[in-house]
Amino acid sequence: MPAIATTNPATGETVKTFTAATETQIEAAIARAAARFADYRRTDFAQRARWTHAAADLLEAEADDVAAMMTLEMGKTLTSAKAEALKCVKGFRFYADHSEALLADEPAPDASAVNASKAFARYQPLGVVLAVMPWNFPLWQAVRFAAPALMAGNVGLLKHASNVPQTALYLEDLLSRAGFPDGCFQTLLIGSGAVERVLRDPRVAAATLTGSEPAGRSVAAIAGDEVKHTVLELGGSDPFIVMPSADVDAAVTTAVKARVQNNGQSCIAAKRFIVHTDVYDDFVTEFTAQMSALRVGDPTDPDTDVGPLATEQGRDEVEQQVDTAAAAGAVIQCGGKRLDRPGWFYPPTVITDITRDMALFTEEVFGPVASVYRVADIDEAIEIANATTFGLGSNAWTRDDAEISRFADEIEAGQVFINGMTVSYPELPFGGIKRSGYGRELSGHGIREFCNLKTVWVA
Predict the structure, then answer these.
(1) Where do the TM regions start and end (predicted)?
(2) Rounded Cα–Cα distance for residues 332 and 458 (Å)
(3) pLDDT tens-digit profile of 41-97?
């Protein structure tokens, strides 16, 4: 498959290919960004907000076409693609409306205590920021960087995943049509091998990456060597705990949605279902029935629940993980075999009887595969939930206040959702711990990541 191309995951057909940027083009883009930052940083919040609102309005009007483009490029259902486009509209509007307040000067509690007539902290943009983004939420991942970065006064360079080039180019075009000056946000059609050259450029101030752990290690190492700030959002193997006091029917219905959202290709998708023994049998029976009933097929068909995986390599990796677990003694309750049809389809799959010596116990499965564990009590549930190198999102289902408190305190993750599915919201900070990365996106915490927090002291 060409390095940078749109390939339809539902058919395996390469639809359109793109030529990677040359060194001359990369240099020109960085120079353009650096020159633009010199004056863009001086624009006021009101002007940036007008441009950001214009981007939201354009995207809202074009949401159907944008959804079709994303479905073509990475295979998510048309319904979920439309929802993603509209979520981006919300993200643009949130930062347009709130960035000035989120970045307001923060006065010292008592200026006289530091021998000043006035003392405060001020947030100022860093400059050119490189964003290395993944294919699974091709527009939302990029917008949740672009909206706060631009509203803070930074400028952006986007290196998107090579299988979603049309979405990447669309975002640059959208922001340009919204009125952002030339050079504020540029898409670089480059392979992963060119990232180091961009990140080491002294005109690039910082970087953010959402993607795999190896990609995160690479970017962090380069940025560390250059002493540049980074934000990383990497993999997740999120637990979904169900206790006896839970509404089990609601938990099952949500568990299905949480596992197969985005065709199972979401870092914050629930992946490990940890169920108390008192409700385990009922949960597994109904969970397996609902997973089995999902319709797998053409992602443009409104009746389809699960489309193809985004890449052939991704489908093959999921298949290998399931086959290895089954060979080691795990029990496949449903699914477990690739579909005999064109495209990169893999059915919703439920696996039980997983032991700690199996690779599946610690691996993240990036597809519609659910691992289910039986536990005796809350202590074992929390222990298994934390028995992973990841710490991104988590879910727990219980009506017991003491259990809610323990889950909130003791689950090792950047997010804990009680009696609901993990979702990213512009209003809430998003990110992980351990090998799920560091730093935060979204909310006020996200917009401040790429700002210099400057202390100002006046005698």
Answers:
(1) none
(2) 68
(3) 999 999 999 999 999 999 999 999 999 999 999 999 999 999 999 999 999 999 999
Q: Where are the alpha helices (DSSP H) in 308-437?
A: 312-327, 378-385, 401-410
Q: How many CB atoms lie within 10 A of CB 19?
A: 10
Distance CA 224, CA 277 (A): 46
CB 307, CB 299: distance < 8 Å: yes
- Tell me how far apart the alpha carbons of residues 199 and 364 are, in angstroms, rounded to a whole number: 28
Alpha-carbon distance of 129 to 121, in angstroms, equals 22
> What is the sign of the dihedral through the CA atoms of 50, 56, 62 and 66?
positive
- Sign, Cα dihedral of 81, 83, 84, 86: positive
Neighbours of 425 (CB within 10 A): 13
The Cα-based distances of 80 to 124, 168, 215, 227, 372 in angstroms read 36, 18, 26, 39, 26
Q: Are 137 and 130 in contact (CB under 8 A)?
A: no
3-state DSSP assignment of residue 395: strand
CA angle at 133 for the pair 129 and 431, rounded to the nearest 5°: 85
Candidate list 184, 267, 334, 451, residue with the active-site label:
267
Which residue ranges form the domains of the chain, and what is each CATH number? 5-234+436-458 (3.40.605.10), 239-418 (3.40.309.10)
Contact call for residues 21 and 168 (beta carbons, < 8 A): no
Report the C-alpha gap between 338 and 320 in whole angstroms: 10
CA angle, 220 as apex, 217 and 226 as ends, to 5°? 145
- Evaluate whether 170 touches 81 at the Cβ level (below 8 Å): no
Per the annotation, the verdict on 267 as an active-site residue is yes
Contact 259, 270 (CB under 8 A): yes
Write the pLDDT tens digit of every residue in 157-184: 999 999 999 999 999 999 999 999 999 9
In single-letter form, the type of residue at position 390 comes to F
Q: CA–CA separation, 392 vs 435, rounded Å?
A: 9
Taking the C-alpha atoms of residue 427 and residue 430, their distance in angstroms, rounded to an integer, is 9
Distance CA(136)–CA(187), nearest Å, equals 17
Nearest CA among 357, 402, 394, 359 for reference residue 377: 402
Exposure letters 334-372 (e unless 16+ CB within 10 A, then b): bbbebeeeebbbbbbbbbbebeeebebbebbbbbbbbbb
Beta bridge partners of 273: 240, 372
Q: Is the pLDDT of residue 1 over 60?
A: no
Cα separation of 454 and 126, whole Å?
11
Question: Strand, helix or coil at 333?
Answer: strand
